[in-house]
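Hi all, long-time lurker, first post. I run a small reading group and we've been trying to get comfortable going from sequence to structure in the token notation. Rather than ask abstract questions, I figured I'd post a concrete chain and ask someone more experienced to write out its structure so we can walk through it together at our next meeting. Sequence below, copied exactly:
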Amino acid sequence: MASTPLHRVAVLVLDGAKPLDVGIPAQVFSNRQSMPYEVRVCGPRVGRISGGDGLAYAVDHGLEALQWAQTVFVPGYRFPADTPPPADVVAALARAHERGVRIAAISTGAFALAAAGLLDGRRATTHWHYTRVLRDRYPGVDVDEDVLFVDAGSVLTSAGAASGIDLCLHIVRQDHGVALSNHVARRLVSAPYRSGGQAQYVPRSVPEPLGDVFAATREWALRHLADPLTLEVLARNARVSPRTFSRRFAEDTGYTPMQWVLRARVDLARELLERSDLSIDQVAERAGLGSDANLRTHFRRILGTSPTEYRRTFQD
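-- Answer (accepted) --
Happy to help. Here is the structure in token form:
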């Protein structure tokens, strides 16, 4: 990993920036031995930027950091409906996008992207409190209020602060594979499976807490992916009926239990392909997917590629 060129990430702090929204990408992508990224926090100007929630930021870089960056994050900021971003910020974002820079917004940062015209004709999301405002103010944006984040290629948006973690994990997974993404999730003590895989979204409903017994069952399942895992087996481990387990599991995760198991198995297969020399048959067996044909079928359907092509991408 040390020989991998560092990917340059700029976090653009606007007036009223929310602390969590700023801190998430700054922490996720901060350079360390395991992370091939370099972060610069910047603002419309060098110096003190007044943030939200009683905090302020001492910013060492101005908008020139967007010329340096390969990925730009725009954290959410307070009162986006009443506070348009500065014209020079809008212009800098538009120029960065024209150069091919990846632009990502957390929460209400989507309003700055919309002001720069980057969301026109694209699907996007923002904090649930502002989805209607975003739709009304920028009718050219296809606002989706039922997702955690949206990957529209070179432009990405996420809902509230916590979904910014999902977005960051998705970007790490996209850049360097599921193994590094899972490593980051463990470091953050965050769930690695909330991003929706290739579908890039999950329902954002807020269910009743399932309690430790369901969390324990998910952890147990991750350790036994090579074993036969049926709804009945999972429900028995959770000590509830299959019907109750299926209903409450779907409320919590947005997936049926077996959809979740399949996705976890595919992610395990991805990690094995990235980090081992196991044959395709061996990967399929260890991931609980049975045969190489079954593994290829799921890879083609979910990832749009073959296991061999996927391995070549991360081992070349």
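A couple of things your group might point at:
The radius of gyration is 21 Å.
The longest strand covers residues 7-12.
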